Amino acid sequence: ARAASTLSNSTHSNNHFNFDMLAWYIDPREGAAGFSPHRDRQPDDVKGSFHEDKMAKYVTMWLALTDATPENSCLYVIPKPFDPGYTDG
Fold first, then answer.
1. What is the pTM of this model?
2. By CB count within 10 A, which of 7, 61, 73, 78 is most buried?
């Protein structure tokens, strides 16, 4: 409930939660690491993934269940004003 409340307050008022869940186990003891840099939910119709006011229709929440370090795939975020491809794909 706390996560839903936090997300509700940090996203567009017209967004709805669907609570999709995906899970990966990354074992750093075996030299495993996460993913290379990417954008979540980058559809073919990039402009269709934004509301008319340019706010995103999709929000992704990442929750590490094991220790996350820069070596095994910490999450990095590029703020929208510094990402020239954010609304163009």
1. 0.59
2. 73
